[in-house]
Write a structure and sequence with these properties.
- The complex is a heterodimer of chains A (169) and B (434).
- Chain A is globular.
- The longest helix of chain A is centred in the last third of the chain and has 21 residues.
- Chain A has a single domain, classed as OmpA-like domain (60s Ribosomal Protein L30, Chain: A, 2-Layer Sandwich), CATH 3.30.1330.
- With 169 residues, chain A is α+β, with helices and mostly antiparallel strands.
- Chain A contains 7 helices and 5 strands, in the order H-E-H-H-H-E-H-E-H-E-H-E.
- A 4-stranded mixed beta sheet of chain A has the order 2-5-3-4.
- In chain A, helix 5 packs across helix 6.
- With 434 residues, chain B is mainly beta.
- Chain B is 12% helix and 44% strand.
- In chain B, strand 21 and strand 22 form a beta hairpin.
- The longest helix of chain B has 17 residues.
- Chain B is globular.
- In chain B, 50% of the residues are buried.
- Classes of the chains: A alpha+beta (169), B mainly beta (434).
- At the A-B interface, helix 1, strand 1, helix 6 and strand 4 of A face strand 7, helix 4, strand 10, strand 23 and strand 31 of B.
- Strand 1 of chain A pairs parallel with strand 10 of chain B, so a sheet runs across the interface.
């Protein structure tokens, strides 16, 4: 038996598993601070939050749906997009997030990119109508919020969407 | 001492008897389920005899089961059914070579495990049963807590002795689990045992990648309601933000020297590949296009970056110099190809190929251009080569929930991990620790 080999083996065994892996627990994302939580009266007026919350106002509609593997905004969302673009353009303090989503077919990272392509597509439609890039952030959750129980084209369609949200709403 | 040449080894078994043997093995190992997709042609028949456990109050022996399961999973070995044998030698003098010939063993391993004072000591042998010759004999010892680690070390030694290539049984893997709506990035042994959570979050975690020294993991977390890239030390638990720019921050890939990463950023446009130093400084674009460019992975020599792009319509694999410049398309077959991974010897790519509605893992030989489907789908993803290039770890979806499996690169031996969680995905294989 080779002594050196044995020694090396023994040494490596001592090293295996000696370190215990520390765990990081991500606490809930830091929520809005107290002052933001209770929207100040100036936010109410500046941002016209009442319009955003009014269920009879088109601004309360927040989802735009897409066809499979497509990022083309369909004509049926013309009014919805125009209303939000107009809102952003006329409220300089408003900050909008467009979050793209996909169904769960394909790779996770590619789906992040595909969801992003959809949020960018919605943003561009809004840019044409005067909404400024500085007020918009386009992001994507890819397939991470997809309905994992989905097995047919009906619910896949619900996964393929861009959601509109506003800061402080 | 003679090394076995795998290609020269004769196959004795018909497909039927192979299936039968492997099905029996399921029972013997009882830790993982087994699927068989074809007849193995170059597996070594090994008799893994029960290692005799010398311990005061416990007669059960299981070290050989860990070893046999390791060797089976590699795809290069066929552990033979030994429970029915009359003779169960644990020392050289007790070997009945006629019995070994009868079960068509080419090699056998046997040994003794002694447990005392919270320490385990193993004396073991690897024997060529045709030549009646000892190939290896060693003594390994360590704390009892390292019982499985010692078994994996023996598997590694047997593997390297008979294939000439280091085994990966002592390496680590990582994966993301989703349990009751909570996500966790976990690190485990290569056989799925010894699971440790590294980070937990109520929001998704994806794209975990080991640093080349295996001391850190880069990953993407959605905990701030958008993808942000973090790097976390497995030694100290300390976590830093690598990239948190406007838009998405995702798809990290370490350069082979560990000094830089390729990442994907969007700002207010489509996914684009950037290079960034591991401390978050020195950000610069690698390539710029109007299309999706994502899933960058470095070639082992650091000269190239393979990536997925939809510049040709559907997603396909491309390649670019790591110093930028013109991109070249690499994948042409199939409706779409994505999720690339480069073999440690740089000769192969594995990626996900979608055709006829199925997402399958394929191997792409970069020298010959030959493409081989090694899984059946329908929803296979995230293939990762083992550090020795012999096995691929991948995720697949069954009825909406994910599982992990390994497949030998010849596509013959597949095994799913028996990990208890609602949903498991995003595997990564740690590199060899030098």
């Amino acid at each position: 038996m080779k002594k050196s080999l044995l020694l090396a083996s023994l040494l490596s065994l001592f090293l295996i598993g000696c370190s215990s892996t520390p765990i990081v627990d991500v606490s809930k994302p830091a929520g809005p601070s107290a002052s933001n939580d209770l929207s100040s009266s100036s936010d109410e007026t500046d941002l016209d939050l009442a319009s955003l919350r009014d269920p009879n106002n088109i601004l309360s509609k927040r989802s735009i749906y897409f066809d499979y593997d497509k990022d083309v905004v369909k004509a049926e969302y013309k009014d919805l997009i125009a209303a939000h673009a107009k809102y952003v353009a006329s409220h300089p303090k408003a900050k909008m997030t467009l979050t793209g989503n996909t169904d769960d077919r394909g790779s996770r990272e590619y789906n992040v990119s595909l969801g992003q392509k959809r949020s960018v597509s919605v943003k561009k439609s809004m840019n044409i109508l005067g909404a400024q890039d500085a007020q918009i952030e386009t992001v994507s959750f890819g397939e991470e919020r997809a309905d994992t129980n989905c097995k047919d084209s009906g619910c896949y369609g619900k996964d393929r969407r861009v959601d509109i949200s506003y800061e402080k709403e | 001492m003679k090394k076995y040449n795998l290609h020269m080894l004769k196959t004795f078994k018909t497909f039927f008897s192979l299936c039968l043997l492997l099905l029996i093995s399921i029972h013997a190992f009882a830790i993982e389920t087994i699927e068989i997709s074809g007849g193995g042609t170059k597996q070594i028949n090994i008799a893994v005899m029960p290692y005799k456990e010398i311990v005061a109050d416990k007669a059960n022996s299981r070290m050989h089961q860990i070893i046999a399961a390791d060797l089976y999973r590699s795809g290069f070995f066929r552990p033979l059914e030994v429970n029915g044998l009359v003779n169960k030698p644990s020392t050289l003098s007790d070997i009945n070579y006629a019995e070994m010939t009868a079960i068509e063993a080419q090699v056998m391993t046997l040994g003794q495990v002694e447990i005392s004072n919270n320490r385990v000591k193993v004396n073991w042998f690897l024997v060529d049963t045709n030549k009646k010759m000892i190939l290896t004999t060693m003594e390994y010892s360590g704390p009892v807590a390292q019982y499985r680690a010692i078994a994996h070390k023996i598997s590694d030694t047997i593997y390297e002795k008979l294939t000439g290539i280091p085994g990966v049984f002592s390496t680590k893997i990582s994966y993301i689990s989703k349990n009751k709506g909570r996500y966790s990035l976990n690190v485990a042994d290569a056989d799925g045992f010894n699971v440790q959570s590294v980070v937990g979050s109520p929001q998704p975690i994806i794209s975990a990648r080991w640093s080349p020294d295996a001391k850190k993991i880069a990953y993407v977390s959605f905990e701030k309601k958008k993808p942000i890239v973090y790097i976390q030390s497995l030694v100290t638990g300390q976590r830093t933000v690598l990239a948190n720019f406007k838009g998405n921050n995702s798809s990290p890939s370490w350069s082979p020297d560990g000094k830089r990463l390729a990442i994907v950023l969007t700002y207010n446009a489509n996914s684009q590949i950037y290079l960034i130093d591991a401390d978050g400084s020195n950000l610069k674009p690698l390539i710029q296009s109007a299309h999706i460019d994502t899933e960058p992975v470095w070639s082992p020599d650091g000269r190239f970056i393979y990536f997925t792009s939809d510049r040709g319509g559907r997603p396909q694999i491309y390649k670019v110099s790591s110093s930028g410049g013109e991109s070249q398309r690499v994948s042409f077959e199939g409706n779409q190809n994505l999720n690339p991974n480069v073999s440690p010897d740089a000769k192969m790519l594995s990626y996900v190929s979608q055709d006829e509605g199925r997402f399958r893992v394929v191997l792409h030989d970069l020298q010959t251009g030959q493409i081989t489907k090694i899984t059946d789908g329908p929803f296979d993803e995230a293939p990762k080569f083992s550090p020795n290039g012999h096995v691929i770890l991948y995720a697949h979806k069954i009825n909406g929930s994910g599982e992990l499996s390994t497949v030998s690169i010849d596509g013959v031996v597949r095994q799913s991990f028996n990990i208890h969680a609602d949903d498991i995905r995003e595997p990564a294989w740690a590199p060899f620790v030098k």
